[in-house]
Amino acid sequence: MKGIRIFLVAGVLSAVLVGLPSAFAAGKSPLRVFVGFKSPPGADARALIQASGGQVIRQYSLIPVVLAEVPAGAVNELRSKGAVSYVDEEQHRALESHIVLGSLYDGSFEILPWGVDGVNADEVWDTNHNLAIDSSSVPAGQGVKVAVLDTGVDLTHPDLAANLDLADSFDFVDNDSNVSDVPGPVTGHGTSTSGIVAAVDNSIGVIGVAPRAKVIMYRVCDSSVAPLGDCPDSAIVSGLQEAVADGADVVSMSFGGIGFSQALKQAVKAVNDAGLIQVASAGNTPSPVAGARHYPSGFAEVIAVGATDRNNNLASFSTFGGHQELVAPGVEVPTTVPQDEGRDAGLHENSPTSRDFSPNPMQFTGLGSPTANLVFAGLGQPADFAAITCTGKIALISRGAITFRAKIENAIADGCVGAIVYNNVAGNFSGTLGVPEPLPAVSLSQAEGLSLKSEVDVGTVNATLRVIALDYDTFSGTSASAPHVSGVAAVVLSANPALSNKAARTILDATATDLGTPGRDNFFGWGLVNAQAAVQCATGVTSCHLP
Predict the structure, then answer these.
(1) ∠ Cα 386 387 390 (to 5°)
(2) pTM of whole model > 0.85?
(3) In 10 A of CB 144, how many CB atoms?
């Protein structure tokens, strides 16, 4: 971690939602179902399913369950069989976060992300504050394996490659050993969660909560599915099963959905019984009403983690309720993204005045550094561009009426070399184009946009718009919170490897920094996870117990 200690502050939080409906594949035949048996299924179980007109897709060894495709009309018949304990349609879950566009940072030196500092992880492995891990004996996650169930990972990322356990990693979506992420709306999700857990100490980029832990990536989510990926329970259960087989110590899951699954419940219990610590995002739908809890975080064996901001406030999107156990940083947290897929932007007015602005790059924006005159293009509709000449110029566009993508595509069609979309209400925003576009495009606050427009209205305004590619960006959602707790769990286990999962979990809860009503509450659970206090308790420096 040699370098400059900087706490990165980023742009505006994007909207985050999730939880796919239980009948994700409704209307399709045959149905994909979990068939639970009262004893480990063998040839007779396969024969039973085949007799119903179905076929076994996958059999699990961790729990007495098979995944099968069966005709919809055969489900009730299967349920009536004496050997069968349940037949449930497979649930699909979604990722609990979104990459948020950050402030200018090229990763050329190493920063201490505010999230890592916020959970006091650096106070464990950098006690003399010299911006380097103290020694090989200091608990920084060494000897601990963290299974990250996610979308895949950038295998060659300079801040991750050294800590990836690729020998055990596996893709349960495509059923092969290539755990690379795939292009889509949430590409990079697994790279970001892995970086929070264990980005290495290498003098560049960022550093993780447990920078000496090993990450096993199990790809259980497809990032190509809009809007927030698809994480089928069949892949999740396979990942949980493999985590036990591969000797993982901690399981980190940054996805969820409100659909209940008997098979997932069984798998989570079996993983807990095997001695692993399980951590999951609490969810990004802030409602305490019955049925709103997400799974797997809603299961008793899993640590449900809500999100906090830099001021230790509960994030506006964070799910809360009786299952909330801990909270951790989850708003605009700096971390790793696939190489060259992060974006940042700058905007400098050259004339008639010289000044800098604070733009946010649009998601899926093109790259470039055009210097050109500005032209006001109204709402960016075809009629607006028909009234102006934008060739070789940067379009200044007001938000509203049509999508950001439509505005940018209209600008491209009219020959613009860049586009600035300013807000129609106070403040800036983080917008998405939905698909990659070649034009450098940014958002701007209403005040800054109107200031530029007032100059364009009376004369010539020349500016330089810059959009660059990064290996780092900011990340928000309870998806970011869960890996902070997973990393702290790894640090605690590296400090005291003899701890059981139950004991380690009790320590995490007992040493959390209480942020709400004294004791456990529905908003913050036991409080903000605290690596320093947890390690001191785990090693006997201090005593701790739950109130």
Answers:
(1) 75
(2) no
(3) 26
Q: What are phi and psi of 515, to 5 degrees?
A: -110, -15
The answer to whether 446 and 427 have CB atoms below 8 angstroms apart is yes
Q: Under a CB-based contact definition with an 8 Å cutoff, are residues 71 and 274 in contact?
A: no
Q: Is the dihedral of CA 293, 528, 131, 142 positive or negative?
A: negative
Residues 212 and 276 both lie in one domain: yes
Axis crossing angle, helix 262-273 with helix 233-245, rounded to the nearest 10: 10
Looking at residue 11, the DSSP 8-state letter turns out to be -
Strand order in the sheet with 326-329: 170-171, 214-219, 145-150, 250-253, 277-281, 302-308, 326-329
Segment (H or E) for 328: strand 326-329
Among 63, 89, 115, where does a domain finish?
89
Q: What is the pLDDT of residues 277-294, one digit of tens each?
A: 999 999 998 765 544 789
CA dist 528 and 390 (Å) reads: 51
Nearest-angstrom CA–CA distance, 85 and 61: 16
CA 295 to chain centroid: 16
pLDDT < 70: residue spans in the chain: 1-28, 97-108, 287-291, 547
The answer to whether 183 and 471 have CB atoms below 8 angstroms apart is no
Range of the domain at 102: 94-338+475-538
**Max Cα–Cα distance, the chain, nearest Å:** 83
Residue 538 has what DSSP assignment? H
Q: Are 68 and 55 in contact (CB under 8 A)?
A: yes
Domain check: are 75 and 162 in the same one?
no
Structure tokens, 393: 């110029």
CB-based contact 1:133 (threshold 8 Å) = yes
323 and 178 share a domain?
Answer: yes
The CA distance from 340 to 18, in Å, is: 27
Read off φ and ψ for residue 524, nearest 5 degrees: -110, 0
In 122-208 the beta strands, taken as DSSP E runs, fall at: 145-150, 170-171, 205-206
What is the C-alpha radius of gyration for the chain, rounded to an integer number of angstroms? 25
Amino acid in the structure at residue 375: V
Q: CATH code at 318?
A: 3.40.50.200
